[in-house]
């Protein structure tokens, strides 16, 4: 009878021992599976982010040529010779005769001298304004053509005002003074464009 009772007790004891010995391992296995699932989700998120960044980079590269238009509209320096040529061409295209072009660069008052120096204002802004005054002569439709040409030009021009000066009685030529602003980006020596 001892063997008939001993064997089931040993089986139950072995099962109980196995259950209590394996239970912490089962809990540890469940935690490991949860950690594995979390890590796999993080990897999937990072792969998705990487794919998104690669797609964005490809989009930027495909649109890089369109960024050249932005550089023309807002150049990286004042480019006064280019501005003069552009204004002269626009006036010629419109049929106006340019009498004079005055360009005033951004200024700042110095505290020591109280005078103005021709340097860009140190306001922390990267976009600077050039003030331009054009004296031209022609008929009114030619002035309208100049305004339309400036509007369609790639470089930004903001017309601030137009003064109508005297008219020639002989050929009805009107003289005009056009005040406008144009802009440029302040470039740093260490920037790459």
Tell me what the structure shows:
By secondary structure, the protein is of the alpha+beta class. It has two domains: 2-62; 75-185, Alpha-Beta Plaits (2-Layer Sandwich), CATH 3.30.70.60. The protein has helices spanning 2-62, 64-73, 80-94, 140-152, and strands at 97-104, 108-109, 116-117, 127-138, 157-167, 174-185. The strands form two sheets. The chain has a four-stranded antiparallel beta sheet. A two-stranded antiparallel sheet has the order 2-3. A hairpin with a 6-residue loop joins strand 5 and strand 6. It starts with a helix and ends in an 8-residue tail after the last strand.
Q: Topology of this protein?
A:
Layout: H1 2-62, H2 64-73, H3 80-94, E1 97-104, E2 108-109, E3 116-117, E4 127-138, H4 140-152, E5 157-167, E6 174-185
Antiparallel strand pairs: 1-4, 2-3, 4-6, 5-6
Helix pairs in contact: 3-4
